[in-house]
Amino acid sequence: MATPAASIQTKIKSESAENFIKGLWRENPVFVALLGMCPVLAVTNSAINALAIGAASTFVMVLSSTIVSLAQKLIPKQVRIASYILIIATFVTVTEYVLQALSYEVHKALGAFIALIVVNCMILGRAEAFASRNNLRQSVMDAFGMGVGFTIACLSLGTVREILGNGTLFGFQVFGPEFEPWIVMILPPGAFFVLGMWLLLFNWVKHRKEAAE
Amino acid sequence: MTELQSIASPAQPEAPPEVSSTRMIMTMAGIGIISGILLVFTYMGTLPTIEKNKAEALERAIFDVVPGATSKLTFTPEDGRLRLVDPSEKPTENYYAAYDDEGKLVGIAVEAAGQGFADIIKVLYGYDPVCQCIIGFKVLATKETPGLGDKIETDPAFVANFEALDVSLSADGSTLANPVVFAKPGQKTNPWEVEGITGATITSKAIQNLINVSAMHAMAILQNNIQVLRDGNTSSQHTNQD
Q1: Widest distance between CA atoms in chain B
Q2: Would you call B9 an interface residue with chain A, using a CB distance cutoff of 8 Å?
Q3: Global pTM value
């Protein structure tokens, strides 16, 4: 997870951009670090659910990374994990209330999954591994990059599962009425199948790239 | 804690500085208090909007399940009779009488709930006292599997079950003439049958069952008090004018 010191020095000018981009591909929380599997597997049975859980997680992660980065000098190392969990849980609850006030319909569809964000170890991981030892600007860029990377990963699963399992994408028919949906794809086993396939593809691309270099 | 540290610190490459227990407790308590205050303000700040959203969603659902309705009154049963609900009270059992522009009763929306596949399913259905049938159906809350159980909302063939579902009362008016029963997909023959969904048998059976249980109880109350409901709109207008 730790970036080699040499690469940080060579790319010091574009550090913010680098911290943002690494979450999308090289250190993608789902495809590379395999973090946050609980929402990735449980909630990605449709593209819209995947997008919403990704956006809500990003929001919580950016806010908690902000606070953790600002308070890094104030929180003693010995109680840091408990403090981070408290901060994350607070923002998750705030997100839930705000979402409920903003749109009753969206909350109705996602209500059960918002609370799951608390147990997403990706958020605690970024607070512990990055925000607690970097400045505010870098921490926000890192959290935002990781959040976008997480959302892309959730969408990758959600679109495939919705298309194959329900014959729709974002609720619109993709195939004709004759299409027989693969119901297993929207059930839990489908989540594992699709994640496995994406990991296979991701690692294959990575190995080819490394071999070429 | 300090004893543990003294053992652990030499092994760690970056020994954490000695911190007193008081400081740790203060930090935790401080974060706790700030979090608590933030949550209380968020809760109080969003509560009116959330309540308003819920009430609006319910109102939309009522006008959805009783087509042609433009206003509603809420009734609650008391010793077998229906009475108007005061806006300040929140009874558990509600009947929403829906009226058209001229104040004529067009139907009654009834809330029902029952165990589904994943969790309790809450629905609202519209009842037409003239044809003694269910004329509309809407799911208020569900956690059923997307793509399978949620077809109770999205499958037009299933929703069509509730365009004219017979729930007429028996001759003595105490219960339904024919209980609402389940039919396998494509095998519906009687107007009191609910045709299931392929691949969502448990959820569609749950809906049939909760409608049956609710209708057995509610239809008798509604038909016995039908005059109260019909007069509801006009009498309340009188009281408002007085």
Answers
A1: 88
A2: no
A3: 0.73
**Which pLDDT does position B239 carry in this prediction?**
42
CB of A125 within 8 A of CB of A35? yes
Residues in chain A with CB shorter than 8 Å from the CB of B41 are none
Mean pLDDT of B6-29: 70
pLDDT number for residue B30? 92
pLDDT value at A105 more than 80:
no
In this prediction the ipTM stands at 0.73
pLDDT one-digit tens code per residue, A160-201: 998 888 888 887 887 877 778 888 888 889 999 999 999 999
Specify the pLDDT at position B2.
44
What per-residue confidence (pLDDT) applies to A11? 53
Q: Is the pLDDT of residue A204 over 70?
A: yes
What residues does A134 pair with on adjacent strands?
none
CB-CB under 8 Å, B19 with A78: yes
Residues of chain A with C-beta less than 8 angstroms from the C-beta of B23: 76
Q: Would you call B19 exposed, middle or buried from its count of C-beta atoms within 10 A (0-12, 13-18, 19+)?
A: middle
Residue A52 phi, psi (nearest 5): -70, -40
Asked if A104 and B143 come within 8 Å (Cβ–Cβ), the reply is no
Q: Compute the distance between CA of residue B210 and CA of residue B218 in angstroms, rounded to an integer.
A: 12
Domains of chain B, by residue range, sit at 66-241
pLDDT of residue A195: 93
Question: Is residue B201 within 8 angstroms of chain A, CB to CB?
Answer: no
Residue with tokens 């037009």: B156
Torsion angle of the four alpha carbons A191, A196, A197, A201, in this order, in degrees rounded to the nearest 10: 140
pLDDT at B237: 45
